[in-house]
Write a structure and sequence with these properties.
This protein is an alpha/beta fold and about 650 residues long. The chain contains 17 helices and 13 strands. The protein folds into three domains: about 200 residues; about 160 residues, Heat Shock Protein 90; about 130 residues, 3-Layer(aba) Sandwich (Rossmann fold), CATH 3.40.50. Helix 3 packs across helix 5.
Length: about 650
């Protein structure tokens, strides 16, 4: 080689050594940069903690100020009782203090000791809040100096002083933490400054080395060109892979849409199936109703037709056919009431009932109904809690259970009817709510019920009796009555050992004088008040004509109309002793009409007549006589006489067993 070539080789060796030195310098530079960054990060962290400590301290002062303003607002509210002024100030600052405590908990969430202190602070805040809220409620109710006394009592509560002490404890803890953070910040700042100086000197060395590394740039350019071509090839491969991914994603999306469509179709099919099941149940209910009504109407139509054919024949034979027709009509009315009870639409007219007295008074009725071969035991303690239910519905339910028990015992056995006070938890029996209840139980020694029969016992028209022996609405009626009364029904049974059916009725001390007249009753001459002037309001023309004729036969002076508006016009022109009104009428209900008439005059009696009462009308019936449709002339006479003589105690309608 030429000397010039030797010089070139020598220069490249020196350049390689410089490059190696520069590389080492770069490594050192990176190390220092890392150390500086780490120190700065630690310093920033310490500063952040320092700022958080400042924030916590300021927030404790804000909470203390909010509590003081809330207390001052409540005190002002106690003095001037200005709900829209001082009361709003108290509630606003008290809620603000609660939000600030929640924010304080977020600030100290990484400090377990501070978190414990904040939780104690919130507990004290809740305790004092109950005292202040109680004082605010008393003040709001305008109870005079009681509100001010409640306020002073609340301000002297230990929780009030404990809150301020706890806030000071939190602030002092944060101040201690703040001093530690300041010391850490100073240490990290000094370390960062020293490392920065080292970094400056090293930067000079790196700059010198960078000049020599310029030679390496040429090689880097060549390598860059090669890397670029390689990257282009990789890009093409990536685009191909991306296209494949898009294609697969589209396939997955299509499959997902197909699954959604299938799910929607399945849901529609399930909804259609549920609708079919509902319609099947409605069809079963309708068929049962039609079957029973056709049987009863056959009795009514046949009895009336035979009576018409034998009007000129023996009186006893005519009366026998008419009695059969009346019995069929009565059974049809009873079926309607059972259907309303099952649908929870039967008008319940509750009153205070003493279970012990009611059960004791039913002994003779049950003896006649069940026969001499059934031994009846009534266990009703005198200390049984009162209940607020429809007494006639309760009597019917007990008689229904007794008749079912007699059939289960084939007419021979022991029947126990008992009442007991019980306390139940939520859902302990069916869907019952927690509370105090009176349990009325009917226990027999009959054949018992299998589990599958118990499960279906409350279904409408489900019965294990032979055809013609029952409608299957007895337990459904009892179920509806119990739920309307706020209670529940339970069954305990074992095959071959008997059954116990229990009605749970909520304990109550409510009293309401609602008197329900029986739909069928014999007429007594002593009940008539001849010559009384009566206004009859009935929208059905056939019922209106029949009612007027019955009243005329009873020696009353009736005037009839078909709407509430016409009744008001007639009432303004004449004086009446009694107003007989249907409950459900177009445009104006019976209770609404009576309310208007009572505003005009108070010196007249009221008798409501109805076949159905909705929930919105039942409150307007309280304090008045009520006669259910259909009714006999005897029942009408008794209801009218009782309404005209309200001072006399109403007669008990008893209970009629429904089989």
């Amino acid at each position: 080689m030429t000397p010039g070539g030797d010089d070139i080789r020598f220069d490249w060796r020196r350049g390689g050594a410089a490059a190696a030195g520069a590389l080492i310098a770069v490594l050192l530079l990176l190390s220092l940069v890392y150390l500086v960054a780490s120190s700065n990060q630690q310093r920033d962290s310490a500063l952040n903690q320092e700022r958080r400590a400042y924030d916590v301290t300021l927030l404790t002062r804000s909470i203390d100020a909010s509590l003081s303003r809330a207390e001052a607002g409540l005190g002002q509210f106690a003095v001037d009782e200005d709900v829209k002024g001082s009361g709003n100030v108290y509630y606003s600052y008290w809620r603000l203090a609660g939000r600030q405590m929640a924010e304080l908990r977020g600030f100290v969430r990484r400090d377990p000791e501070q978190v414990q202190r904040v939780e104690e602070l919130q507990a004290l805040y809740a305790t004092l809040g109950e005292k202040f809220d109680e004082a605010a409620r008393v003040i709001t109710s305008k109870q005079g100096d009681y509100g001010l006394g409640y306020f002073y009592s609340a301000t002297r509560d230990p929780a009030e002083r404990a809150i301020h002490a706890k806030l000071r404890e939190i602030a002092e803890a944060e101040r201690d933490t703040l001093r530690e953070r300041i010391e850490q910040t100073q240490v990290f700042s000094a370390r960062a400054d020293k490392l920065t100086d080292y970094l400056s000197w090293l930067g000079i060395l790196v700059g010198i080395g960078a000049i020599f590394l310029g030679f390496v740039a040429v090689v880097a350019v060549r390598q860059f060109s090669f890397a670029r071509r390689l990257a282009e090839n990789e890009t093409e491969r990536a685009e191909g892979l991306e296209a494949a991914v898009r294609e697969r994603t589209q396939e997955l999306w299509d499959a997902n849409q197909a699954l959604k469509a299938e799910a929607a179709e399945r849901e529609a099919a399930e909804a259609q199936l549920r609708q079919v099941q509902k319609m099947e149940a409605v069809g079963q209910l309708t068929g049962g109703i039609a079957h029973d009504f056709n049987n009863m109407l056959a009795v009514v139509v046949g009895g009336v037709d035979l009576a018409r054919r034998r009007l000129n024949g023996p009186r006893r034979e005519v009366m026998a056919h008419l009695d059969n027709a009346m019995e069929g009509a009565t059974r049809a009315a009873a079926l309607t009431r059972r259907l309303l009870s099952f649908a929870r639409s039967e008008p319940l007219l509750p009153d205070r009932v003493e279970p012990s007295q009611l059960l004791a008074g039913m002994t003779d009725l049950l003896d006649r109904t069940l026969g001499e071969r059934i031994r009846i035991t009534v266990d009703a303690p005198q200390d049984s809690w009162p209940v607020y239910v429809d007494p006639h519905q309760l009597e019917n339910a007990i008689v229904n259970l007794a008749v079912n028990a007699r059939d289960a015992m084939d007419g021979v056995g022991r029947l126990t009817i008992s009442a007991a006070n019980v306390r139940l938890a939520a859902n302990e029996v069916g869907d019952i709510r927690p509370g105090e209840y009176v349990r009325v139980s009917v226990t027999d020694t009959g054949s018992g019920m299998a589990p599958d029969v118990i499960e279906r016992a409350f279904e409408p028209f489900f019965t294990t009796k032979p055809v013609g022996k029952g409608t299957g609405l007895g337990l459904s009626q009892i179920f509806g009555f119990a739920h309307q009364s706020g209670g529940e029904v339970g069954i305990e049974s074992e095959v071959g050992k008997g059954t116990t059916v229990s009605i749970y009725l909520p304990r109550s001390n409510v009293e309401a004088p609602v008197q329900l007249r029986p739909a069928t009753q014999r007429m007594g001459e002593e009940e008539r008040v001849a010559g009384a002037r009566i206004l009859v309001v009935e929208d059905d023309p056939r019922v209106r004509v029949a009612t007027v004729e019955a009243l005329q036969d009873l020696d009353y002076d009736p005037v009839a109309c078909d709407s509430g508006e016409e009744a008001i016009r007639i009432f303004d022109g004449r004086t009446f002793d009694l107003v007989i009104s249907d409950v459900i009428m177009p445009e104006m209900t019976g209770p609404e009409l009576i309310k208007i008439l009572k505003q005009k005059r108070q010196d007249f009696a009221v008798l409501f007549v109805t076949g159905y009462v909705g929930e919105s009308e039942s409150d307007g019936l309280v304090g008045h006589e009520l006669l259910r449709k259909p009714f006999t002339v005897g029942a009408l006479a008794s209801a009218v006489a009782t309404a005209l003589q309200p001072s006399e105690p109403p007669r008990s309608s008893g209970a009629v067993a429904t089989r």
